[in-house]
Amino acid sequence: MFAPVLKISNHLSIFLPDLRGGGAERVAVNLANSFIQRGYAVDIVLLSAEGDFLSDLHPNVTVVDLHVDRLRWVLFPLVHYLRQARPAVVLACMWPLTIAAVVARALSRVPTRLVVAEHTTWSRSELLKRPTVEWQIRKSMHWVFPAADGIVAVSQGAADDLARFANLEAQSITCIYNPVVGDGKPPAPEPLSPSGWWTGQHCKLLAVGTLKEIKDYATLLNAFALLRQRVDARLLILGEGECRPALVAQVRQLGIKASVFMPGFVKDISLYYQQADLHVLSSTGEGFGNVIVEALAVGTPVVSTDCPSGPREILCGGQFGRLVPMGNAAALADAMAESLAATHDTAALIARAQDFSIDKATDRYLELLFPQTTTSANS
């Protein structure tokens, strides 16, 4: 499957299930491309080489397709890859692939440095609904993660949560904020259909994210229905997921069908951030919250639930956007109305977003992935 090569000191690999739309997938693409620009040889190793973000990879990134359709079968393909490619460093993302990567390295006996990265606030994860699954996740992290050379969480709150959840030493976990803001010109956005629905004199509200329970779009829709009693507004929700049927039914029940549009996953959405009067996040859990930074980067005001863990850190406790209690539609409607009526310091919002630049995150990751190299370069 893989041609044997000599170990290259700047050769690194990123392990991920696939590159379908999602925050962790976007982070992996941003890092891979940035590592290439810094002169590193980069493999992105996928269980299945599919997803909307594949086309965003730098042409010099090597895509390795393990052709695995179930995580349970990934262990030995990973072992084979490590023995053949012999990367200097592996960055493995998202449980249970993080667990498989640690075990695969041990079985391969390849002296590869391994860092695992978790993008979730685990105490809020939807996977914990079944007690047996929760036990498996906790124990696997507790026993396996200490064998890795580094553990990354994407916010300090997520790091603290992971330490409590898996009973890990807090000092063993490094907080590295996600790389969101780049210097390049964003691609042209995909046009919405029906055309013209988004434009007009009404207030434009934007929400972005997978249609799943933890995003709590049900509360957002209830809040928007309350807002519509006061403000002429339209709500655009960009994302796809299993909650779509329930959300469509809720829109009809609330009588707001003409004011809510859910076109599904849209890859390039920069223009919609720019056109929006307000970006809203209603989640009950966010390891980080890429969409908040994406909105701030173009000066769009943000209202977010004060969920664990990323939003409070990104917004500095409310300095750069309003924070409201989770699951409270009335409070969310009030915050949206207040934000729409307020004057915002656009330059301050844009400046805050620069704290989450791709360059800054790349520096932090390289310090952890290649500690001897970066230490020597800085000495």
Automatic annotation (TrEMBL):
InterPro entries: Glyco_trans_4-like_N. CDD domains: GT4_GT28_WabH-like. Its EC number is 2.4.1.291. Keywords: Glycosyltransferase, Transferase. It holds the Pfam family Glyco_trans_1_4. Residues 22-180 form the Glycosyltransferase subfamily 4-like N-terminal domain. The keyword Transferase applies. One of its GO terms (molecular function) is glycosyltransferase activity. It is an enzyme of class 2 (transferase). This is N-acetylgalactosamine-N, N'-diacetylbacillosaminyl-diphospho-undecaprenol 4-alpha-N-acetylgalactosaminyltransferase. It comes from Polaromonas vacuolata.
